[in-house]
Amino acid sequence: MALIQTNPKRRRYGVAALAGVLGGIVSAIVKFGWEVPLPPRTPERNATNPPQELLQQMGIPESVTHLSYTFNGNEGLPWVSFIVHFSFSIAFAVIYCVLAERFPQIKLWQGAAFGIVVYVAFHVILMPLMGTVPAPWNQPFAEHFSEFFGHIIWLWVIEVF
Question: How far apart are CA 117 and CA 120, in angstroms?
Fold first, then answer.
C-alpha cells in the first residue's frame, strides 16, 4: 500500500508546526478535564504518577519530581508532572500536524486512530517495558478505559484545532 502524499506546493510545515503547538496546549487542557470525571489511576498508583516515575528513572530525584504548588486552596498540584504532560502533548501535536501536512491518511477518524496508536505505544508497550507503569494486565480496566478514550479525545482536539 502506497502512502498518499499531498501536493508539495500546498504544504505549509511552519503553519502545521504552529497549529501543533497551539493544538497541543489546548488538547493538554482538554485531557486534564477528561481526567477529572474519569481519573486514569487509583489514588495509590497516582502517589507517584507516570511522568514523575519516568523522570525518577532518568535520575531526577523524588524531591524534584514531586514539587507542587497550591492554587485556590487546592494543595499538592504537581507542576513538574504538568510540564511533562504539556511537553508530551505539544511534541506529539507538532509531530501529528507536520506528518498530516504530507501524509493525510494519518488523520484517519479525525485523528482518533493516531491517538489510539499513541495510547498503545506508550501505555501498553513502552512504559510497561521500561517499568514506568505495571504490565497492561496488571493495570485496572478503568485506567485503560480512561487513557484509551482520553487519547482519542486528545488527538481529536488537535485535529479540529
Answer: 5
Question: 11 is written with which cell numbers?
Answer: 504544504
Per-residue DSSP letter, 73: T
- DSSP states of 107-155: GGGGGHHHHHHHHIIIIIIIHHHHTSS--GGGS-HHHHHHHHHHHHHHH
Tell me the backbone φ, ψ of residue 5, rounded to 5 degrees.
-125, 150
pTM over 0.90: yes
The letter for the amino acid at 53 is E
Residue at grid coordinates 514539587: 67
Instruction: Provide the 8-state DSSP code for 69.
Output: E
- pLDDT tens digits for range 32-69: 999 999 999 999 989 999 999 999 999 999 999 999 99
pLDDT class of 3 with cuts at 50, 70, 90: confident
CB-count exposure of residue 43 (10 Å: 0-12, 13-18, 19+): exposed
Tell me which DSSP letter residue 40 carries: S
